[in-house]
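Lab meeting, item 3. Inverse folding demo.
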């Protein structure tokens, strides 16, 4: 690699030798992918969503809560927010989440993808407003920067396009890719979240894109009633459950670090009211 400076991250100098050698032993993301499954008891989550909707009139979904929880988990465990470029590890500047959805829920409308920088200091209401604003814009007829770029590149003859893609990936590996390519591209981000639950589908494991530098791909499944074992009492009951499945690039950090990130993430999703203050309603405040 020619340079260590990048527009989207800072070279990590104080890595143990075993972590420094990993990108050379496992050259691609999918060679080093670790598969994780999480099942969330969303009993308290459902109650919070209902109370928040009544208190604010805002439409809150699992999608909002998962993105909010992911941003805070990454902020608390920042080594997750790293990526590999040219065999070296970089700390990403900012927490960038990419997420996708359908323009309309039928086969004839395309997927749309949004990339956004999130600040963990935002209120939960700000998270909702930003996410919903981005979704509305992506579903409109307005062309995004990515759409315009794709339309331009797909006019190029196939052989030349193959060579251009290889050139872009090469420039990224030597840290010579201009920031204009990286900033708008949804595959240069901290994490990608796909909400299949909103389409009535179960979560699946999604591959990691070799293009770009996303180290974590998460898929949200649909809400289902499932048997649930209380780990303290051993009692079995039926609970509302949402399954999330993750693919994670182990070259970025080890499994123990990732497991602790997922513990933080799960607690925030299952107990959002422990972190988010509900606005007072007339009934809650005792006003007439």
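The presenter then showed the designed sequence:
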């Amino acid at each position: 690699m020619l340079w260590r400076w990048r527009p989207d991250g800072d070279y990590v100098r104080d890595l143990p030798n075993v972590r420094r050698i990993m990108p050379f032993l496992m050259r691609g993301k999918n060679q080093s992918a670790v598969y994780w499954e999480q099942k969330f008891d969303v009993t308290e989550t459902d109650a919070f969503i209902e109370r928040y909707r009544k208190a604010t009139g805002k439409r809150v979904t699992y999608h909002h809560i998962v993105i909010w929880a992911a941003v805070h988990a990454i902020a608390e465990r920042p080594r997750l927010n790293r990526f590999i470029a040219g065999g070296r590890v970089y700390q990403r500047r900012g927490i960038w989440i990419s997420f996708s959805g359908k323009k309309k829920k039928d086969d004839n409308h395309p997927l749309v993808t949004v990339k956004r920088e999130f600040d963990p200091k935002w209120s939960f209401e700000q998270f909702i407003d930003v996410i919903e604003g981005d979704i509305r814009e992506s579903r409109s007829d307005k062309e995004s920067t990515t759409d315009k770029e794709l339309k331009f590149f797909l006019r190029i003859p196939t052989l030349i396009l193959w060579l251009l893609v290889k050139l872009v990936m090469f420039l990224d590996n030597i840290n010579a890719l201009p920031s204009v390519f990286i900033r708008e591209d949804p595959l240069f981000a901290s994490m990608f979240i796909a909400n299949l639950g909103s389409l009535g589908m179960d979560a699946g494991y999604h591959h990691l894109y070799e293009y770009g530098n996303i180290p974590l791909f998460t898929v949200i499944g649909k809400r289902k009633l499932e048997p649930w074992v209380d780990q303290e009492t051993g009692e079995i009951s039926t609970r509302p459950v949402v399954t999330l499945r993750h693919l994670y690039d182990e070259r970025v950090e080890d499994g123990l670090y990732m497991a602790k990130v997922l513990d933080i993430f799960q607690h925030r999703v299952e107990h959002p009211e422990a972190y988010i203050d509900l606005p007072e309603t007339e009934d809650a405040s005792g006003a007439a």
